[in-house]
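#struct-help
A.M.: can someone run this one for me? Single chain, 265 residues.
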Amino acid sequence: MPVPRRDVERTAAVVPTGYLLTKRTLALRYVDDENGCREEPHTHVEHAVFYPERATATLVADDREWPLSLGQGLWVPAGTVHSASRSLKTTLAVTFIDTTMASAPLDEVGYVTVGSALRELLQHLELTGMPRAQRLRAQTVCLDLVTRETRPHIELPLPRDERIAPIAASLAHDPADDRSLEEWATLTAHSSRTVARVFKAETGWTFTQWRTRARLALAIRLLEDGIPVGIVARRVGYTSNSAFTAAFRGILQQPPRAYRASHHR
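D.P.: on it. Structure tokens below:
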């Protein structure tokens, strides 16, 4: 269930005084975890860049689920409500950035590029001791490498209304679920008219339009992992490749095979 913003905890700073940034791998545990990222909705006093160190991952920020693939990061400005998985299986890493020591590439939540050079340099800084001046120079290079992401993506707004939030959460986890709006309404003890109206009001899309975007958000991640188009189509809920291709082209303006060929890493 969505957490009211007044109840969201604001964590303390993670970046040591006098430095620009600090990197954390979310599958690991740190002595300062009480001030780090967590699975419950919270905010930071610092900016943060989340990115997968391998394969793909997702993050919930600013009431949206953001799919992330290798080479892609999400800029989360200080004070933005978000939550992140700390599962041992997560591929997510986060770099906290001192707001007083560095300028922001974006004014709001958005995608940035986190290429191999940046990932390797951040890992080197995390694992290697070095003089302060040298570390600051390397951190400055890291910040210069964080740039706006231009690859196509799908933002999936997550509704906060408790009448439909469980439906959206279930479909975000398993978008291949083909239960109808009427079936979901019965399951949640609401009228289908209410569910339809609240979906449109909360997300800006109809139930069917939102589910299509949930399916394609997962499809993008699977295609970038190198999974064949036919398997992806079935995994996200399409019974035919042609229906999947039509939906994919309608939103991303290109067929899934072309997307896979240009974005598979």
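A.M.: thanks! The chain has a mean pLDDT of 89.
D.P.: also worth noting: Residues 129 and 135 are 9 Å apart (CA to CA).
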